[in-house]
Design a protein that fits this description.
alpha+beta, 26% helix
């Protein structure tokens, strides 16, 4: 094995690891087959769902709300600049959606990021025949 190959290999390894570290930990940075989305509240509670069970997702600009319909649950997110999050959801990029305390949301309103201030999860009941 040549010395040149070893140097190029080490450079590639460092570049790949630096790229992975610079990515947002709350988003997937490349394609994958099995993905989950985690919803996190300010108190630290979390619940995750598999993207494969997401049936539809709707953004209501007037109500400032995104509604997810999973096979077993309905999830409603309220907040600001949710259109940015909706674009990411179309490509299954978010890993974690964090709910911010509404009183601190003003501190981030000037940034180009979505701010979720409320997460409501409702379990759907099966219709008995």
């Amino acid at each position: 094995m040549s010395q040149n190959f070893k140097l190029e290999f080490e450079e590639n390894k460092e570049t790949t690891s630096a790229r992975a570290e610079s990515q947002d930990p709350d988003k997937y940075f490349q394609a994958g087959n099995i993905r989950t989305i985690t919803f996190q509240w300010p108190n630290g509670s979390e619940q995750f769902f598999n993207y494969s069970y997401l049936v539809t997702c709707k953004y209501d600009i007037e109500q400032k709300k995104i509604v997810f319909h999973f096979t077993s649950h309905k999830i409603e997110l309220s907040g600001f600049k949710l259109h940015l999050l909706m674009k990411e959801l179309a490509f299954q990029l978010p890993k974690t959606i964090r709910c911010e305390d509404e009183r601190y949301a003003d501190l981030k309103k000037d940034k180009e990021i979505s701010i979720v201030t409320k997460i409501e999860i409702t379990e759907l009941k099966e219709n008995a025949s």
